[in-house]
Amino acid sequence: FDHERVKVFFVLGGPGAGKGTQCANLVKDFGFCHLSAGDLLRAEQNREGSEFGDLIRKYIREGQIVPMEITIKLLENAMRRELTQPHDREGWEDGRGRFLIDGFPRKMDQALKFDEDVCLSTEVLFFTTTEDEMLKRLLERAKTSGREDDNEESIRKRFRVYKEQTMPVIEHYSKEGKVATIDATATIEQVHEKAKEIVTKILA
Ligand code: UP5
Ligand code: MG
């Protein structure tokens, strides 16, 4: 996809930082299409006839990164589907579109491959808070989420993978001047205001 027409915002931050929550708000403000890599993988895991179901389940429970070919294919297919259907949302005329790609890329190889083969990204929205806060949020969410990785053991593994594999991605984009860091410790509404301000400037 042509990055002049298709705006890709990567949304990164640790497990439970609030990526999904904030994406839902930004969709309402700016007409984004929100694609969560984790949600796409969970849907593929449960899709009847998927050859990857067992593999995805195993990786997610261990907090490991699913081989990038699978995730990138799911994202690319979802983007193509969106871009080829009619929209009356802001920013979506004549093959144009804007995406929030949530929870991706979380490993350097994915970042390079996506920028090269799918679409050059515009910006990284980086939501940051402490591990204690993220753990608290995830354990609370665990009561109702039904997610197989919302247990303390999987959460600890997700934290480790995030530090070892995803932080280098953020450093990489920082060097390119593409990272907007947002303190996600405040209330959902306060974090939203800050994110909205940043996105407004970038889209202007
Ligand atoms: N909450 C949110 N904001 C709050 C605030 N400001 N104050 C108080 N509470 C707040 O939020 C989490 C919880 O916190 C919610 O209950 C919310 O109400 C509350 P949420 O918005 O869901 O946080 P989010 O950052 O989206 O957390 P999530 O658990 O989804 O993050 P992960 O990055 O861990 O999960 P994801 O779904 O992206 O990935 C899951 C797994 O998929 C990965 O571990 C990996 O195994 C696999 N994966 C890949 O292999 N490749 C990929 O490219 C992507 C994923
Ligand atoms: Mg999420």
Automatic annotation (TrEMBL):
Its cofactor is Mg(2+). Binds 1 Mg(2+) ion per monomer. Residues 36-66 are annotated as: NMPbind. One of its GO terms (molecular function) is UMP kinase activity. Signal peptide: none annotated. ATP binds at residues 16-21, 141, 186. Consists of three domains, a large central CORE domain and two small peripheral domains, NMPbind and LID, which undergo movements during catalysis. The LID domain closes over the site of phosphoryl transfer upon ATP binding. Assembling and dissambling the active center during each catalytic cycle provides an effective means to prevent ATP hydrolysis. One of its GO terms (cellular component) is cytoplasm. Residues 140-150 are annotated as: LID. Its EC number is 2.7.4.14. Belongs to the adenylate kinase family. UMP-CMP kinase subfamily. Monomer. A ribonucleoside 5'-phosphate binds at residues 42, 64-66, 103-106, 110, 147, 158. One of its GO terms (biological process) is pyrimidine nucleotide biosynthetic process. This is Uridylate kinase. The chain holds residues 47 to 250 of 259 of the full protein. It catalyses: UMP + ATP = UDP + ADP. Keywords: ATP-binding, Cytoplasm, Kinase, Nucleotide-binding, Nucleus, Pyrimidine biosynthesis, Transferase. Its main location: cytoplasm. It is found in: Cytoplasm; Nucleus. Catalyzes the phosphorylation of pyrimidine nucleoside monophosphates at the expense of ATP. Plays an important role in de novo pyrimidine nucleotide biosynthesis. Has preference for UMP and dUMP as phosphate acceptors, but can also use CMP, dCMP and AMP. It comes from the Eukaryota.
